[in-house]
From TrEMBL:
Top-rank taxon: Bacteria
Protein known as: DUF4090 domain-containing protein
Protein species of origin: Brasilonema bromeliae SPC951
Pfam families per record: DUF4090
Higher taxonomy: Bacteria, Bacillati, Cyanobacteriota, Cyanophyceae, Nostocales
Length: 101
């Protein structure tokens, strides 16, 4: 694998890859991200940045559910949540994240 291809695969993986692409204004395919999309994104993220948080544990759980549902079967994610001391999946989360599966 060439260094260029390796560099490309490294920059499209991981939690920071999207943030880095947004900061550079360049999508993973090398095309520029339209200014209107960047402006709206920054506006909404600014609003989110000013929102009062309910606690780290609640935010962690939300992220685990939102991202975990893409990778982990419902029963397994539910068990992992309860094993870790988080609340089990709620009916609305199951319907939203697993309803179409």
């Amino acid at each position: 694998m060439t260094a260029e291809i390796n560099q490309q695969s490294q920059t499209t993986k991981g939690a920071d890859a999207v943030d880095e692409a947004i900061a550079s204004g360049i999508d993973f395919d090398g095309s520029p991200i339209p200014p209107a999309k960047l402006e709206l994104y920054h506006k909404v993220m600014g609003l989110e940045g000013n929102r009062q948080r309910s606690g780290v544990s609640n935010t962690m759980r939300s992220r685990i559910v939102r991202i975990g549902a893409k990778h982990i079967p419902q029963e397994e994610l539910n068990q992992q949540l309860t094993d870790a001391g988080f609340a089990a999946l709620k009916e609305k989360e199951i319907a939203f994240f697993y309803g179409g599966k």
